[in-house]
Amino acid sequence: MTAALTGLGYQRWALDAILLLPLLGAVLVLLSPPAAAKRLALYVTLAEFVVSLGLWWTFQPTAAMQFQVVRQWIPEWGIGYRLGVDGISLFLLLLTTLTMPLAVLGSWSYITRHERPYYALLLVLTTGMLGVFVALDLFVFYVFWEIMLIPMYFIIGVWGGPSRLYAAIKFFVYTFLGSLLMLVAILTIYFAVARATGESSFAYDHLWRNIGYVRPWAFWLFAAFALAFAIKVPMFPFHTWLPDAHVEAPTAGSVILAGILLKMGTYGFLRFAVPLFPEIAMDPVVTGVVVGLSLIGIIYGALVSLVQPDFKKLVAYSSVSHLGFVMLGIWALTLQSVQGAIVIMINHGISTGALFFLAGMMYERRHTRDIAEFGGLAKVMPAFAAVLTVVSLSSIGLPGTNGFVGEFLVLIGAFRTHPWAAGVAATGVIFAAWYLLWAIQRLLFQKVDKPENAKLPDLSPRELAVLAPLLACIVWIGIYPAPILRRIEPSARALVTQVREAAGAPPVADVAMQPGAR
Predict the structure, then answer these.
(1) What is the pLDDT of residue 93?
(2) How far apart are CA 466 and CA 460, in angstroms?
(3) pLDDT tens across 405-440, in order?
(4) Mean of the per-residue pLDDT values for the chain?
(5) Over the Cα atoms of the chain, what is R_g?
(6) Which of 10, 16, 266, 474 could form an SS bridge with 5, CB 3.0 to 4.6 Å?
(7) Cα–Cα distance between 283 and 505 in angstroms, integer?
(8) How many CB atoms are located within 10 Å of the residue 367 CB?
(9) Mean pLDDT on 57-70
(10) DSSP 37-80
(11) φ, ψ (nearest 5 deg) of residue 85
């Protein structure tokens, strides 16, 4: 397979095709008959996924950027169309291309009005999200970051729930304000480096090599990047937009928000904020603040999930808890913790995405997400009950499921540098079991005491097709994560070494999680 793709010159055109195919598909969807829009969107997203699978087969487990594209765009300003993929971004890209056809299929019967613009916006959103994960030019990165914002605003605001406009505006304002601060920071770095070196370029490598020229403003520049990314994660206390957006968004919107968009914040920390400003990021005060907020997010998100009557809002608050583990893993800055943080990003997209799909399927049947309105669904909908149980166990982090792998790596990695924080974070696993097991006990295993639930249809073939790939990933990653860890390890090791050396931090004796065969 690798040889065949190499013979086709796959490395030279892969990223171009992955970014341009959804945009072309969006135009075709808008020009198609209304009845054909969702089918065309499904074909485009499936084709996108198939094209992206070549990245898996041809990716080499090294720390170097691969599949690079370098073209001049606006040479007078030093703006170039620079793209690339490494072990940090590879699986976020694949997660995106896997999620989008499932999002289209999950919208099949849910979206019944204005179908053409809806599916066109999903495709434009695909390009925006993928561009964030592959951009190696800070200006291009910012463009893709903003492109992503607009389709999601309309998806929530037009096809969302009763309070959709409030949720959409809140999402837009929070994200846009953070983005503006990040833009100011990018321009400050660009002009300072250009004055000092005489070379105008937004290329990440060029700015990273010359970041010393902005040392007097390093703290404020780091703060600008960090705020933009913290809002997107979202870290406590910048999380308040998330429950509204999740609850009001259509099912596919919630899946994309949880599965992909939140990862753009944690990816931003890994790719830009921490490597560009290692001395600030690893400063004891900054480390204490970030680790402290991560722990608060882990515990707070779990406790608030525990008291939610709305199942969808419960899942939304659980994201605050799970992403707290990711932030802890990044700031622990050991090989295991960074590997674990990346794996949690992948697994959260799979497990929480599946939970949102299941919440949407409940809502389509009863037009309510109130946990108290259900009960005894295991007798009425056995397939639904089985899937919900497996997905919930994976979200808890049961050994043998995907959720265990990432949390285990983060905890053992964090224990090397912040043992007390690892101990506190471990309680988050207990709270996750509490709120999820209690929720599925009320949903599935009580008596069928409401007539409306007595004859609910079980999962349809289309719904099973949406959930089957996610279930397969839950089992595969839980049992055999070696191929994923093998591809992540070189980039994670290079990041840890680079940041620790630049910050003057002592090295940590990491033992790589040996990944075995491809």
Answers:
(1) 95
(2) 10
(3) 989 999 999 998 889 999 999 988 888 888 889 888
(4) 88
(5) 22
(6) 10
(7) 9
(8) 9
(9) 88
(10) HHHHHHHHHHHHHHHHHHHHHH--SSSS-EEEEEEEEEGGGTEE
(11) -135, 135
- Sequence-ordered list of residues with C-beta below 8 angstroms from that of 205, at least 6 positions apart, any chain: 136
Count helices and strands in the chain by DSSP H and E runs:
23, 2
Segment 26-50 mean pLDDT: 91
Query: Which tokens is 100 given?
Result: 């989008």
CA distances from 163 to 81, 126, 187, 244, 430 (A): 39, 25, 36, 8, 33
Q: By the 8 A CB rule, do 317 and 301 touch?
A: yes
- Tell me how far apart the alpha carbons of residues 421 and 443 are, in angstroms, rounded to a whole number: 34
Query: Count of residues for the chain?
Result: 518
Nearest to 479 by CA among 405, 390, 391: 405
| SS3 readout for 119-173 | HHHHHHHHHHHHHHHHECEHHHHHHHHHHHHHHHHHHHHHHCCCCHHHHHHHHHH
Cβ count within 10 A of residue 254: 28
Alpha carbons 139 and 323: distance in angstroms, whole number: 26
CB distance 217 to 188 below 8 Å: yes
- Structure confidence at residue 349 (pLDDT): 92
pTM of the model: 0.91
Pick from 353, 344, 132, 318: nearest CA to 242: 318
Question: Any idea where the domains of the chain sit in the sequence?
Answer: 310-513
Long-range interactions of 149-155: CB distance < 8 A, separation 24+: 149/175, 149/176, 149/179, 150/124, 151/121, 151/122, 151/124, 151/125, 152/125, 152/253, 152/256, 152/257, 152/261, 154/117, 154/121, 155/118, 155/121, 155/122, 155/125, 155/249, 155/250, 155/252, 155/253
Distance CA 306, CA 311 (A): 10
**Is the peptide bond preceding residue 234 cis, with omega within 30 degrees of 0?**
yes
And the tokens for 263?
A: 């990862």
Longest Cα–Cα distance in the chain: 75
> If you ran DSSP here, which 8-state letter would residue 211 be given?
G
Query: Any residues with CB less than 8 A from the CB of 164 and at least 6 apart, and which?
Result: 156, 157, 158, 248, 249
C-alpha–C-alpha distance, residues 437 and 396, integer Å: 9
CA–CA gap between residue 303 and residue 324 (Å, rounded): 13
* Residue 517 confidence (pLDDT) above 60: no
CA–CA gap between residue 264 and residue 469 (Å, rounded): 22
> What angle is formed at CA 447 by the lines to CA 446 and CA 452, rounded to 5 degrees?
115
Check residue 7 and give its pLDDT: 54
Structure-token pair, residue 453:
């639930």
Q: Torsions phi, psi of 229, nearest 5?
A: -75, -35
Buried b (16+ CB within 10 A) or exposed e, 441-475: ebbbeeebeeeebeebeebeeebeebbebbbebbe
